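chain and backbone:
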Amino acid sequence: MKNNKKYIITAISSLFINCAYASDFNDGINFSCETNKIINIEQKFDKLLQDFKIKQYVIKNVNYKDGRLQYKLSQEIADPTKIQKEFNLKGDIVEIPTLGNKNKKVQVPSLGEILIAKMNPGRNFTYKNDFCSFETLYDNIKIRQNTVAWISQVEWVWPDGDDAFLNKRYWNPNFTLKNNRNFTRAVDDIFINQKKYGFGCNFAAKISMTQGLFDYYKRIKKDNKMVSLLEQRMARDKDHLEKIDPEYDAEKTDNNGKLLKVKYGFNKKNIVPGDWMYFENTDPKTKEKLGYEGSNSIYLGQNKFNDFYNDNNHFYSLEEKLDEVYQWRNEVFSRSRDAEKIKHLTHEYLMSLLNTPKEGGLLRDYRVTHYNFINKNGKLIIDQD
């Protein structure tokens, strides 16, 4: 058996930047562990690529001796919001519970779209040590998809400068969990009884990421032990909703919260469905208005970004999201009420806003994502990478 091998077939030319990449195991999806594990992961991953009909767009590098396996796209994707269209992906239909114990079918990005975006060069998803398994990767993809499913149907109340509020049945006025309430059920209620909740986009983003994770293990994977371990982690400081996400600092230090981690240094090509990102209002005047400092946004795949308050039929396209944040400087805080203040922007100018604020754009260079979690002999293990 050879220690190294790779495959590559011509990719879709209209979607890719024409580049060549060395086998450095620093791009795309990487696994690092014992040879027997690498062989098992390789077999399952190859089948997944075959099932999704995307194998021809992927480079595989494998070194059995060193226990290294890498999958990345043959060329860098210039615009990840076009993956569904250019790869002719249909998206998946999943069900989520709604009020009255009924299920609702919602459209979400296909697992193939999420996998393609994770393999885009310029970003590194590494699974090593205890996390070096096909299951860990697959859980992450499914959690991202489940997070999108829940966000796609939310319609919370926008406080518009007033105090935020939660359902008093489950939550105290200071946003702590009532003593007799279960955390997972209380988070479910935020998504089931949406009109009893009003908060800003930062809280909306973190609670959406929380729901995607907990609901996956509870309802989809039916892993009650994992749910219990995660609930214990949330309760460790007696304040379940505190420190879910990382602290963000000007020094760009990678640091982590209870469920979420942040990494810096990404550009506009590195966007994966389920990523939490931030569009900054760079106008010095209007950014002082409460709630309009910027937009905490989660990418939903299929060229959709979240619409937590259903102002735009449950989602914004990339152009609409950029235009929304930019128009705040023109005091367009309601697209209907302030319509006469809207100034038309060309597609080219809107796309330039995908640069970082330092480069004249709006998109900050960090991405917030879930940890990978595993249950190892009854102990919750967290992937710090």
User: Anything to note?
Assistant: The chain has nine helices and 17 strands. Residues 4-150 form one domain. The chain has two domains: 4-150, 155-382. The CA atoms of residues 29 and 125 lie 5 Å apart.
